[in-house]
Specification:
alpha/beta; 10 strands
Length: about 240
Amino acid sequence: MKKGKEGARLSMVELKNVSVTYASSGVDALNNVSLKINDGDFAFVVGSSGAGKSTMIKLILKEIDATSGSVIVNGYNLDKLKRRKIPEFRRTIGFVFQDFRLIPSMTVYENVAFVLRVIDAPRKYIRKRVPYVISLVGLQAKANSYPNELSGGEKQRVAIARALVNDPKLIIADEPTGNIDPELSYEIVELLKGINECGTTILMVTHEHDLVRHFGGRIINITQGEVVFDEVIGGANEV
């Protein structure tokens, strides 16, 4: 994690007095939430189903707008962001899906490279960057394998490589251990922690409290649309 004085660290995500009410149902999904994720942070976001975790992620990705309050992500004021600028903004974020979202007809290499090809990155850069990122997640030997030839844990590693390949400022991992064997969950979080230690800010949404207790760190608990806990705690793996 990046060191330095707290005041000198940039804010990657800042929610100021944010509320979200879904007009169709009248449900208050978030209620006057204020939250700041700084450059270099690794934060777990926990809460029961329907607590507001998914709404918060949708806000950060500009999939929905706040009913009131302001949302600033990676220097973009999402309240004022023009529609044509949304793709540019989203390229500053890496996203890891619970269900992997790999393209079955593409190899591991092609799945990761696809992210760069979409933005017309130079071929020379792709040839250098993609193998490097695949090696970071420990899948060099699987670069030419297809998704149906991979285990759940390997698929999630590919998903993480894909989120990382564009060198985003922020990675959001939405229940990244939800579809893999429990014993592999710790490996995935260790991998994300390693990426974080290289300087990438990570926000991980999870309902797996055993993982959170094991690793410790910053825990943000959302209950009924409100942040009820936001503290740094020691992990069970700390001596």
